[in-house]
TrEMBL record:
Residues 6-218 form the FAD/NAD(P)-binding domain. This is Monooxygenase. The lineage of its organism: Bacteria, Bacillati, Actinomycetota, Actinomycetes, Propionibacteriales. Keywords: Monooxygenase, Oxidoreductase. It comes from the Bacteria. It comes from Nocardioides silvaticus.
Length: 500
């Protein structure tokens, strides 16, 4: 039998690395981090499309305990995020725990040995006292099920599998999708394409992007006086928090806050697009916040250029030469870009089969009942399991707020377990139910329930029609609960197996 690691962590992105840092801080040194890609960084390793940049101010989109004074722009380009991930892995000595190209197929709780048995695609098995899944929300690319797509004779590229060898210069490019990814990519494609056709099914709210280079003097100040960068972080976090809490979560009581966000996007559209017909096509018919809005100063102007068309007629099929819409019109293409996003609810949640105590199959249980994880991290009957990408886990807008809240939860939970000389924790079913009831009540005030989201096609909503991705509380409240949750919400026990 293979050794039993302290923890098997699945995913070497910022979530998995945060969990590894926390476990190391608590003295768990035998960690195995399994990553299906060939390097660390998660999203920032996988996504390499032209125009990729973070859409949260960089001072905020980083670990608070590892500020990076070197961001070149207010919204750093993707390559800097990947470099930051590499830096963190090196500084915190994480790389030697990582195994790349390791595709996990399933995990099962072994009650007799009080450990998780993790099966990999290569047939091997790894064991861990704890199982941490950090597999991301946006990690299973969605391929559109459009008839004939496999017949297309030109180049097809999904944004998560960007291929620099595909020639774009001077070619006829079609792009399907107008989500946050497409909004970053379209201006880049517009710069080089002979002709660009943008296939939009649902328009997105786009607000102005207050971006720019961070002057050397400011970077110097951030490096020399970290307090200055902390102040910048606090400002960024406060703005995002107000947008999220007032504009989205308290929609019922503060509709004017939501209206401010909506008006800012509408003004931006009006300023940048003079043609009323084009403007109408780009105007969302759902409330602001139902799906994630984005920022760009170059998206709308690109759509006004003479060699760029916005196509809103439904795609009927793809053939060898291009795309045919339901009105019989066709666009001949050389390159087809799929900016079609991610499959969250069918292939994720969880990303692979996870079976806990008494045969509880997490994916089946969530689907047959309701999606919930206590405080967005633990699940009844799944002992010693920490699920970082859970229902109600995403708190605020910067993913790092979520990660650090979960690190705080881990510290309190595992500390309490040790204080009791125990080595197994499990959240109580009643605590999970009470948490779900509370989140459900809070969601009632949010734009997701109180607003008009029916036409948004937002990935925030699951197959039950519930918007359970985001935690409907402030980040301050999420963090407070992570450090103060009632310890009695958990049951602790001592396994019969001596810990090696
Ligand atoms: P997305 O928001 O899910 O957008 C996918 C797009 O593809 C939508 O416009 C969707 O239309 C369209 N689509 C999917 N299947 C289609 C089909 N069969 N026919 C026609 N259209 C189809 O995905 P994304 O743009 O990749 O963004 C996902 C998330 O990633 C963002 O919300 C954001 O959180 C994150 N992101 C972050 C950054 C950053 O920080 N730098 C950058 C990019 C993305 P419908 O809306 O009609 O379904």
């Amino acid at each position: 039998m293979s050794q039993i690691h302290d923890a098997v962590i699945v995913g070497a992105g910022f979530g998995g690395m945060g969990a590894a840092i926390q476990l190391r801080r608590m003295g768990y040194d035998d960690l195995l981090v399994l990553e299906r890609e060939d390097d660390l960084g998660g999203t920032w390793h996988v996504n390499r499309y032209p125009g990729l940049a973070v859409d949260i101010p960089s001072a905020t989109y980083s670990y608070s305990f590892e500020p990076n004074p070197h961001w070149s722009r207010l919204f750093a380009p993707g390559a800097e995020l990947k470099a930051y991930a590499t830096h963190v892995a090196e500084k915190y000595d994480l790389r030697h725990h990582m195994r790349f190209g390791a595709v996990v197929e399933g995990a099962e709780w072994d009650e007799a040995r009080s450990c998780w048995e993790v099966r990999l695609a290569d047939g091997s098995v790894e064991r861990g006292r704890f199982l941490v899944t950090a597999t991301g929300f946006l990690s299973q690319p969605r391929m559109p099920d459009i008839p004939g797509i496999e017949d297309f004779a030109g180049d097809v590229v999904h944004t998560t599998r960007w291929d620099d060898d595909v020639e774009l210069e001077g070619r006829r490019i079609g792009i399907i999708g107008t989500g946050a990814t497409a909004v970053q990519l379209i201006p880049e494609l517009g710069r080089v394409a002979r002709h660009l056709t943008v296939y939009q099914r649902t328009p997105i709210y786009v607000s102005p992007k207050i971006d720019g280079k961070v002057p050397g003097a400011v970077r110097g100040a951030f490096a020399k006086v970290p307090l200055t960068q902390r102040a910048a972080r606090l400002t960024g976090t406060a703005i995002l928090e107000v947008m999220m809490v007032a504009g989205v979560l308290h929609f019922r009581n503060l509709p004017w806050a939501n209206a401010i966000g909506k008006a800012a996007c509408e003004r931006h559209l009006k300023r940048q697009v003079k043609d009323p017909e084009l403007r109408a096509k780009l105007t969302p018919d759902y409330d602001f916040g139902c799906k994630r809005p984005t920022f760009s100063n170059t998206y709308y102007p690109t759509l006004t250029r003479p060699h760029v068309d916005l196509e809103t007629t439904t795609i009927d099929h793809v053939d060898e030469a291009g795309i045919v819409t339901t009105d019989g019109r066709r666009a001949d293409l050389d390159v087809l870009v799929l900016a079609t996003g991610f499959n969250l609810w069918d292939e994720n949640f969880p990303a692979f089969r996870i079976v806990g105590r008494d045969g509880r199959d997490l994916g089946r249980w969530w689907r047959d009942n309701r999606f919930c994880a206590y405080e967005g991290i633990t699940v009844p009957k799944l002992p010693n399991f920490l699920s970082l990408n859970s229902p109600y886990s995403y708190s605020g807008l910067s993913y790092f707020t979520t990660i650090e809240t979960q690190m705080a939860h881990m510290e309190r939970l595992l500390g309490a377990m040790r204080d009791r000389d125990a080595d197994v924790f499990e959240v109580r079913e009643e605590a999970n139910d009470a948490f779900l009831d509370r989140m459900t009540d809070l969601l009632g005030n949010s734009v997701f329930n109180a607003g008009s989201c029916a036409t948004a096609r937002s990935y925030y909503f699951n197959q039950h029609g519930e918007a359970v991705l985001l935690r409907p509380t402030s980040t301050i409240s999420a963090h407070r609960e992570a450090v103060r949750f009632p310890i009695d919400d958990y049951e602790f026990r001592t396994s019969k197996v001596p810990v090696a």
